[in-house]
Amino acid sequence: MSKRADKPALVQDIMSKKLVSADADSSAREMAQLMAEKGVSSVILKDGGRIVGILTERDLARNVCAKDGRASKTPATAIMSMPVQTIGKSAAVEVAAKMMADGGIRHLAVEDGKKTIVGMVTATDLARHLRKRLDVSGPELEILEVLYWD
Questions:
Q1: Which residues in the chain land under pLDDT 50?
Q2: CA distance 53 to 83
């Protein structure tokens, strides 16, 4: 029933190359504004060029909004996720999906062979991939459309 190709899809085939990073000393508010401006759901936080964590919309919602915190006074480092979970760009998409499901995470930084982060794969990317690869209709298609709306 599926429309699978002969070879498995790789992370590099579905990842977003739209990678946004910022200084770790930024506030949660600055990071929320940056995410909105760039149309992304996460920001890689760096200290002097070294990656120290990732801040996601989920981090903002759970650690600032849900706690009625002041985003302008909350350091991004206080609410970021760390360490940044990574996967190689040539890994199979199924491996990324398992890592994300097992770890309860929605963002995986994608590394090249030199351990440089070159992209991000998200739950939305996985849903988009699944939607393209499977021959689904009815309720199953509606579920996928809720996960990823174009």
A1: 1-5, 150
A2: 6
Q: Domain 11-147 belongs to what topology?
A: CBS-domain (3.10.580)
The answer to pTM > 0.85 is no
Domain extents for the chain? 11-147
Question: What pLDDT sits at residue 91?
Answer: 97
Tokens at residue 40, please?
């992304």
- Separation between Cα atoms, residue 143 and residue 50, nearest integer Å: 39
Give residue 115's region: left, alpha or beta (phi > 0; psi -120 to 50): left
pLDDT digits (tens, 9 = 90+) for 16-52: 998 999 999 999 999 999 999 999 999 999 999 899 9
| Dihedrals phi, psi of 116, to nearest 5 degrees | -95, 135
Run of H or E residues at 110: strand 107-111
The two tokens of residue 56 are: 């996601």
DSSP string for 15-54: -B----EEETT-BHHHHHHHHHHHT-SEEEEEETTEEEEE
Task: State the pLDDT at residue 115.
Answer: 87
Q: What phi and psi, each to the nearest 5 degrees, are found at residue 82?
A: -155, 155
